[in-house]
Predict the 3D structure of the following.
Amino acid sequence: MASELRVIGEIAPGRPTVLCIAGSMIDPCVYDQMEVPESFCAGKVDFYHSPGPYDAMSIASSILEYYDEHQLGPLVLVGYSAGGVIAMAAACQAPEKVKGLLLSNTGPCTIGHGDVNLPQRILEQWNDQDFRNSFIDRCFSRPVPPFLRLRLEEYINTIQCQAAHDLSKSLRQLDLREPLRRVDCPVVIAHGIDDKTRTLAHAQMIMDSIPHAKLRPIPGGHTIMVENKAGWQAALDELLVDVAERSAV
């Protein structure tokens, strides 16, 4: 069965590939400024515009199916928030396939999460503009540029309420702390330290399960690749150098 996962970007078989996974209800465009070496392909996973199910483990499985079908080279998963959980879930499911992880403002479970009631609020307030505004606002530590806010709002208009709920609910049922101990690929945690939803305590949880992970605290909020592109890009560059050395890219 052909993979129906929507990936934005030019992907070529056999080449090392970076796949970026955004957070719940967030347009993958937040990764538009990412730069990768010429030897790498890069794509942005748009799971909301792909067939379900939309729980984190199922989306992770879809990414691995895409990897197999397209015969990708060494795979690096870049994820933040819910996207980081999906990336970790994929690495837990198939540690032999994932050759690198860049994780930002995410965690292996939702203990201490700053928005525990989000799934219910999605169902109850989906069409409430104040709810959508507050959700976007909490993803940043400073005012969101108007052009980006508009794009994020437009993206939310294109996704299904139930899909957003299912992913958010699954995060609160998942605990990857033990499965992550199987992960032995290079891992860099580029964490926006001004985030009130996913704090450094969540980054520490990842490091407790993956002791070789490298923590890179960066000034900025939840959507750190937008708020501090230079700091986040430096963390990605560091990871890709390590992956290239280990995978003979």
In short: The chain has a mean pLDDT of 95.
